[in-house]
Design goal:
about 30% helix, 4-stranded antiparallel sheet, alpha/beta, about 280 residues
Length: about 280
């Protein structure tokens, strides 16, 4: 059983959480220990510890401003790009220290892809959006590139929609298509982990449903960590859920468990209030 003290500084370990659905074995892909994020002198996230399980979807839930996006960005060191940002603690990816200063960041971000809240395709053709990252990572040969591009577009359900116009501008696609193209751009590099920061929040309901269905199809093949304010979405897609809250103006992890367990039988009163709609 997870015991929570008054300041919500619980340390979570493997075996303390309920396992997800049968398709998801509780084998850690990433192990996060005591991660804190600070911008200048302001701490936005304090002492987060949890395991992220291989092939599973972990949803990060909680109100705006409690550090969820900062936590997500720390996992592949996008925080390195923010002036004044400082991250402490430890993150292991299959045993490798993500915060090792000698780590090749390009290689790390190939293994841990990022999907942002708003679709951000390159202002290039559909083909070039996928070809460019492949070439940057050393993939050459017209047939090899074409094969990878087609396979990835099929994986995200775009090939039948855009396969005959790959040289058209990516910016001319609909919002939902742009977001699936951005997911394809991450998948074409064959990552281990996908980080998603509210990937459906800027989409219309139909496009959102299409992207959500895609995320479900990716479960099992990729480890996915998704920030979402849509609690119904978290319940539908996630194996595990982590609830963040602001305490004394600092984001903290309050509870982490199997998604169904966290929603149906939360162990902390703040979690219970949030998932019931009484708080937040």
């Amino acid at each position: 059983m997870i015991e929570l003290n008054d300041d919500a500084s619980t340390i979570f370990t493997v075996g303390q959480v309920q396992s997800g659905p049968p398709c998801c074995d509780p084998v850690p892909s990433m192990q996060v220990a005591n991660v804190s994020v600070r911008y200048g002198t302001r701490t936005v996230l304090d002492q987060v510890t949890l395991d992220i399980y291989k092939g599973c979807i972990t949803a990060l839930i909680g109100p705006s401003g409690c550090g969820k996006t900062s936590f997500l960005s720390a996992l592949n060191r996008l925080t390195d790009l923010v002036p004044g940002a400082h991250v402490s603690g430890r993150v292991l990816l299959d045993g490798q220290d993500v915060f090792d200063p000698k780590l090749d960041l390009m290689a790390l971000r190939r293994r841990i892809g990022m999907i942002f809240q708003r679709p951000n395709p390159f202002p290039l053709s559909i083909r070039r959006n996928l070809e460019l990252p492949l070439r940057e990572h050393g993939v050459r040969g017209r047939q090899v590139l074409a094969g990878k591009i087609e396979a990835t577009l099929r994986a995200v359900g775009l090939w039948d929609e855009v396969g005959d116009r790959l040289d058209s501008p990516a910016m001319a696609l609909s919002g939902g298509q742009q977001q699936r193209l951005c997911i394809a751009r991450a998948l074409v590099l064959e990552p281990d982990v996908l980080l998603m920061d509210e990937p459906c929040s800027s989409l219309d309901p139909i496009s959102s449903a299409v992207v959500e269905e895609l995320i479900l199809r990716l479960r099992g093949r990729y480890t996915i960590v998704i920030v979402t304010h849509n609690l119904a979405q978290a319940r539908r897609i996630a194996n595990y859920a982590a609830f963040f809250w602001m305490k004394e103006r600092v984001g903290k992890l309050i509870e982490f468990d199997g998604c169904q367990q966290l929603f149906d039988a939360p162990k902390h009163e703040l979690t219970a209030a949030y998932v019931s709609g009484a708080r937040g």
